[in-house]
Design brief:
This protein is α/β, with parallel strands linked by helices. It is built from 17 helices and 22 strands. The strands form four sheets. A nine-stranded mixed beta sheet has the order 9-10-8-11-12-13-14-15-16.
Length: about 475
Amino acid sequence: MRTIDAATMTRMITDYGTVARLSGAPETMIGPDVIIDSRKATAGAFFVALPGESADGHDFVGAAYEQGAAAVMVTHPVDAEITQVIVNDTAAGLTSLARAVHACAREEGLRTVAITGSAGKTSTKDLTHQVLSAVGATVSPTGSYNNEIGTPLTVCRVGQNTDFLVAEMGSRAAGDIAHLCSIARPDVAMVCNVGSAHIGEFGSRENIARAKGEIYEALPTEGWAALNANDPLVAAMWQRTAAHRAAYRVGGQPVFDVPGVELEVHADGIVLDDLQRAGFTLVATQDDQVSSASVQLKVIGAHQVTNAAAAATAALCLGVDLQIVADALSNAVPRSPMRMEFHELANGAAVINDAYNANPDSMAAALRTLASMIADRRRTNPRARALAVVGDMLELGSDEVQLHRAMGELAAQLGIDEVWAIGDFAEVIADGAGERGRVTRVDRAAGSLQLDDGDVVLVKASRALGLERVANELVDREDTR
């Protein structure tokens, strides 16, 4: 956010939907940072006091002031010598501020890419960020800052010189995506895929598709809908927008029709190295002109090819040159923590930390990556083992038992040597894995694993289980040795 005075900020918040009044000096200069954590206050920051289950932001106004904050947003006057913007609902006030910031930036040329999907949206967002950063100043969240608080905070990081905003958007109910798009109206929109994440809340994949597809309905007619032609539920979403249509696909997968495509992108000739990093040819067809460029990814997993094709499509929709796109994808690195983080250990073993979150689709992709990686390692080290420390996948509804058992079964089918299961569904996972299955606890998991040269261990579960503790302990233990 550009630095503005308190009177202007109060007016902006009111103009974009939340009645606000000012208590304090109207000439107070605020910005550029907008924060909700008093510990992150910087000189001039605007602290938004959000209520919480365990703490109320109003109790930390003084701390934010001491850290350098210039003003705060509160629901009632607070006894502190700081300029205060008073609203009935601070979350709504934050939303209104973000709408104002985005609208002003859009008038000055900001272009926004909005990304949602059941799996892969964070990785796609990170790749898109790095591609667009090659041609202009780009803002996007680190990690999954993708809800009704995270999206406004990300938008508020847009400054006067920002060229691109990449907004990741999550949903747990119908209307969530539409709400987030009302804050950051997209110029390019995409649904990465429709899977089983949050199916317990939506009830079916069709309901998930209806909710995710709201992102295309938010596009202006001059915008671009980037559609995954390998996913039938996404491909069918072309009917939900009057915007320009682009389709992307990965070779070797079924392709579903997207009528009226003006830009077609596909990844072909995919070859994986021993760390499961993909090399491929990126082909783009537009106005009957075909162009191609080579890509060699640094991120791990065959599933990253689809993410890369999606990121490429978004950039091409915005007019970025194909060779620049390919070079940026080849130089892109993991940007958000705990997502297929690869750690080669001093003793020759390796840890894949993918503990940020899990659903059936991302779990299957991670297990397949592990199996392929260990197959390559066994060419030079026949004793190398594939180990999986996995746990509960949350919000799966009535199919949760079946889906957890299927995860264990898939691990066994892929030849994973040992499956260490953690959480409420540990017994179910272990049962699916058969003789390979073991049950343990988070605080015992690292101690249960003795890693030898060539071994690779995958650590993955839904965020609530905190399995990054296992990955970190394994890395620290072996590197200390």
